[in-house]
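Aim 2 progress update. The chain analyzed this quarter is reproduced below.
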Amino acid sequence: MNSPRYAALLLLLSIFSLASDMARAATSKTEWKAGFAAVKITPSEPLLLSGYASRSNAFTGVLDDLHVKALALEDAEGRRALWITADLIGFRAEYAEPACERITARTKIPRERILLNASHTHTGPSLALKPRDGGSDEQSAKIIAYTRRLQDQCVELALQAVARLQPARLTWGGGVVNFPMNRREFTGKGVILGVNPRGPVDRGVPVLRVESPAGKLLGVVFGAACHNTTFGGRDNQVSGDYAGAAQRFIESEFPGAQAMFMQGLAGDANPYPNSLNDPAKRPAVEIAREHGAALGREVARVLKSKLTSLNSPLRTAFGRAELPLQKAPPPAELERLAKSGPGAQRWAAGQMLARLAKGEPLPAHYAAPVAVWQFGEDLTLVTLSGEVVVDYARLIEDAIGPLKLWLAAYSHDVFGYVPSARVLREGGYETRGMIYGGPGFFAPEVETVLVQKVRELAAQAGRSR
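Predicted structure tokens:
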């Protein structure tokens, strides 16, 4: 049994065993840890839904549940970050920032490493910490209670995600979806909310895959750049719209994995068709689920394709862009705008008049949060606040380069529309300015200020063009 042939066989087996052990060690070595958590936030009692001013009554039913979801990340250097998405109209600063402060106190994750993004569904609950203008005391009390509970849920969700951190691998890729449509329709009477097939739109679908060292899918974060407005103002039931349907589709295709939706630069994009223009006159819920399935199928396809590895470290930069507002028109002009001006501007003009009547100054700028997350040299995630129009996709690509780039809006603080100089020149609904945080119309210089802030933060985070 001690023949040279037997000894050679033992040596060969030893080499194979060593190679196998080294391969397993290489496979199990990861630069990341990841932890997922989710909580249902479907209101337990009827509330006013947000998104359409025409609604005056509490919702009449629930088509599908709403959720807040979290992904905690830890890079190879032990630095942690938190990614939170929600089936909501938007995170406003008045309740988002106090929640972030509490999350930081409990998890030690600094504010610049906490990302909040809302799907902007128009069939989710209204949110507020102050009584609603024109609303009943009972409804206001319910909305305030719901918003406070939401803050608590976000904090607990962060703790759960951090507690579940485990070794993971991160990869990313992208796809395409066809239902986003530019909604700025040009007519003889100006720009209306309609359908503009020749208008610019971002149909990209960024996809982040999070898997265990053994290759099991733990979760996915994916995006699209399209309003969640398949449902119209006449629809008064709770739903996550197409984004909620897409998340459910993915989670059914990959049992045990968590799907999270990130809204992109959707300020001037609507789903097509929707409940207002569907040639077949189908129910909105049917159209929303069709769009969601289309998006879900594309994400599933990307997940099964060859993806790009994301390497550590995660470097982040956070700041605020001082977005300039137009100088307020004279009171007489404001009165004209409030009574007979473009519909998109009447509300803001009325709010400006009310503030001037109280002797209060009008704001000259709005401090809009902006964040950049840099994953090694492999991906730059830019998150903007407000309802940002699609022009900023090209403006930011020109400023910091188009490759290895993921752009999102509706993050951190949703205060109103962020138009480009082109959109302001053309007019239309997206010029209505701020809805929350103080009345005012943005100036054309807003695009220069915002893009410069992105360029500055991208450099701080270490993006190489």
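The chain has two domains: 32-312, 316-373+415-461. Confidence is low (pLDDT under 50) at residues 13-28. These observations will guide the mutagenesis experiments scheduled for the next reporting period.
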